[in-house]
What does this fold into?
Amino acid sequence: MDQNDRYDNEKVLKLLTEANQFFEQNRDYPPYQIGEFLVEFCKLFKQLGKLLYFAFSDVIEKAQVIKDRGNEYNEQTKGIYGIIQIEKQKGLMELNGENNKEILKNKTLPNYQSMARTMLRIIRFFNYLKIMFIDVDTNRNKKFSDICSDAYNEALAPYHTFMVRNAAKAAWLAAPSRTKVFETFAGPNQTDEVAYAAIKKFVNALEPIRLNFWDYYNSNKLTNLP
It folds into this structure.
């Protein structure tokens, strides 16, 4: 595997730290760091197996949407909340690239995917990550495949079609052992305790981001975007 495709937990933590620092200064989150975090994190799934990576391939696509919208609105705002407010003012929040003509009643922005609906799906993914990693730490004898399945059923399955849910089942059945997860996440030749400490550090870095986004979406009544 190319070195650039390998999961680097320190790089992931650095991106989360930068996002949290940006929030402390601006009360908003930077599109680039959030998008890059998603790209870098999904390298973990890629190393853990093709089916697992495929199950979350849409996260990579959404990461690109986040970075694209950040570049597009860079002169107007530096943060994701700011972009969502602009989309709200322009009536763009529900656009997904397929319903654009129907909603806009014209041919403008035919491929536009909104930051608002994209981030809603990403913060559901954040829920999945929290549930998954807490289960890894709390239930230390539980199979990783069962952990993935339970986290998916709680955090993501309610929003997916029957076909997507069935495809996800195959990914969980192919999930690797806990040992493989630890070697990939914390590095080879590390003790289990080092791996558990790394997991806790990751969860603690992601949690304020997850909570702040949910607070923003609930406060602005954005949780039911299509």
Observations:
- The two ends are 38 Å apart (CA to CA).
- The mean pLDDT is 93.
- The chain has eleven helices and no strands.
